[in-house]
Amino acid sequence: MPEAVITDEMVASMQARAGIELRIDHSVNNEEATRIAVTKFVGGVGDINTLWTDAEQATASDYGAPVAPPSFVIGCFSGIQFGWPGLGAFHNATQAHFHKPVYWGDTITATCRYDGFTGPRPSNFAGRMVTDHFVNSYRNQHDELVAEINWQVVNFERGSAKSRAKDSNKPELVLPHPWTENQIQAIEEQVLSEKPRGTEPRFWEDVEVGDPIDPLTKGPIGLTDEVAFIAGGGTPIPRLKAHAAALADYQLHPAWSFRDPVMGSSEPIYAVHYNKAAANAMGVAFQYDVGFQRQCWQIQLLTNWCGDAGWVVDCSAQYRGFVYLSDVVTLGGQVTGKSVNDAGEHVVEVTTFSRNQRGADVMPGTATIALPTRDNPSPVALRARSE
């Protein structure tokens, strides 16, 4: 991969682009929330909540019709590779706001605005880095805003990162993680024991500050987990292609690809999520997860807990460290507050965590969830389409 350092010319070029609406046609994956598109997306996330795949269950719920999970918009458009040629990049944080449900058959139009960057600043990891700021908006065929996502990307001097990784005195990670068969069996039993709350309402009156959020376990994360997420619509940048279709794109946009040293093939930059050579070229020891994939896990944690009649108003997360293939991540959290918001909805505030088998919180976060009460329409019913 090309390696560059941050220059004054590069900074000036990116400053001039702040505030522009980006062209994202090549990175849009699902424009229509068909039954198959929704099913593929939730399968790629690993979400077993039948609310998203059972038309009868969804129609009987307060949604009143078959519906997609709030995270589905990420499978329509997630992110885009933009600017800073020759630098490495990591998606490092997201703030999501959900306004309306996405129903089967809805057409979603996504836009992405570049809001500029902060930095350059020194980094212990890679010499100097800058942080880009983006805003995604998602509207349905009625021009209703269904979701907004603010997200940030750290761009770093790739050559310096690789050099510092070689000189680091940190204990070397054993990758892939050396699980025993008994450990894997226990993890899989835990995964299979975790169920979404589903049709049983979680009433606001019954929730107390300090209550735990039911856990959600992911892993040991494998190659197919990454491929399934990408195939379900989570392709980071740009859309997944093969053979001549891919090569034509790479000819026009050389920064989108690299040459695999083993296979000799041209591979997309986002192959870092399933290709060890790509991860190594980025200065990382092993393949790792997608940032927005981790965000989808947090959203699944929240929708599992709040039940079919609850609504995730917003959530935010920081991506700290890498989640490598073979890792196990346990998500959970705690209720930290209860209130009635300005719209009159009964909400709870929660903090969330995502701990790997080494004890590191790889995705601390927060969220606001609107819950049903015994005397008022549910937050889902208030947002349901009346047509």
Tell me what you see in this structure.
This is Acyl dehydratase. Residues 31-148 form the FAS1-like dehydratase domain. InterPro entries: FAS1-like_DH_region, HotDog_dom_sf. With 387 residues, the chain is α+β, with helices and mostly antiparallel strands. It has a single domain (8-236, 290-383), classed as Hotdog Thioesterase (Thiol Ester Dehydrase, Chain A, Roll). It is 26% helix and 26% strand. The protein contains 11 helices and 11 strands. The chain has helices at residues 8-15, 35-45, 55-60, 72-76, 158-167, 181-193, 223-234, 243-252, 276-281, 291-306, 379-383; strands at residues 88-98, 109-123, 127-139, 145-156, 212-218, 257-259, 266-268, 311-318, 329-340, 346-356, 365-370. A 9-stranded antiparallel beta sheet has the order 2-3-4-1-8-11-10-9-5. Strands 6-7 form a two-stranded antiparallel ribbon. Strand 10 and strand 11 (365-370) form a beta hairpin. The longest helix is centred in the last third of the chain and has 16 residues, at 291-306. The chain is globular. The mean pLDDT is 93.
List keywords for this structure.
11 helices, alpha+beta, 387 residues, Thiol Ester Dehydrase, Chain A, two-stranded antiparallel ribbon, nine-stranded antiparallel beta sheet
